[in-house]
Write a structure and sequence with these properties.
heterodimer, A: 191 residues, alpha/beta, 7 helices, globular, B: 164 residues, two-stranded parallel sheet, 7 strands, binds iron/sulfur cluster
Chain lengths: 191, 164
Amino acid sequence: MAVKDIPDNVFMTTLDAAANWSRANSLWPMPFATACCGIELMATASSRFDLSRFGAEVMRFSPRQCDLMIVAGRVVMKMLPVLQRIWLQMPEPKWCISMGACACTGGVFDTYAVVQGVDRFIPVDMYVPGCPPRPEQLIAGIIALQDKVIKTGTFNGREFAKRTVAMGPPPFDADELIRIREGNEQLPVLN
Amino acid sequence: MSHQELLQTRFPAAGLVFSDFRDNHRVQVPKERLVEVLTCLKTEGGFDMLVDITAVDYLEYEDADDRFGVVYVLLNTSTGERTIVKTFVNDPDPTLPSMYPLWKSADWTEREVYDMFGIKFEGHPDLRRILMPDEFTTFPLRKDYPLKGRGERHNFPVITRSES
Ligand code: SF4
């Protein structure tokens, strides 16, 4: 079939590009809202900011039906295994947005129970800073993520297989444990 | 008769210390008399609700004689009267009798005090940790536990992209 025979409303593209275009415009978020950032996430989804303009309004509370995890709020020690389990239950391809200072770094909650950044333990694609980020900022993050999906995604998810090391800041400060163990010698044993 | 008069007539030589601040009526009780005093407050004083149990760690307080203060907040739901009963326990092995037989609300509040301060409550039906994970080995609200923990928050497996 010669090229001149193709009508105006037919486009030629690669399978990767077509798949990524549709994935980017139909993200189904998994709202992992654990704290105040979750309120802003709800505001983003509702009528005033209207996340459905970007095709991402279908919040699913079942991880099996989602492809975008939005971690909104601080994650504590007891919640992290839950977060990891939900992340593992989500089918490929999947992406993760870490929303707010707490999810990115622990924020002001530098305490014994709060995980200092979810990117230490699960892969994160996009960081949205702020405390809490305004809905515009989250929308900007989702647009940037759509860009990333379109530019880097492949049809069969090959891009994920290449990422074998944790990304973001170093996942574990090895010195911290040593400092703690040294410091412990002086502390009375409690139990 | 206010609960203060009631306690004074009931336990004249028990070493109770009364104090007031604004609307707070407080009474300090030696650990040995705690059950008697609280039972009297419930049965005769009409304090039918145990609002809260909490604790304070007085480690490194210059003028403190005892390490832990345990605070019981009681409410009389028919008169609206409140009173705060405080007692002290010490290392090692701080232990108090459980108030579960008197007020069922002591169940979770005592578990919380145990979880955070390691104060044991004898006779509690199910003294487990309530807030921290079961694997946690120490008591985080004690003053000799560092604010940033001892690295427990980093002890999780790392999931990378290719594994998930
Ligand atoms: S970043 Fe701020 S708004 Fe978001 S969860 Fe943390 S404290 Fe709350």
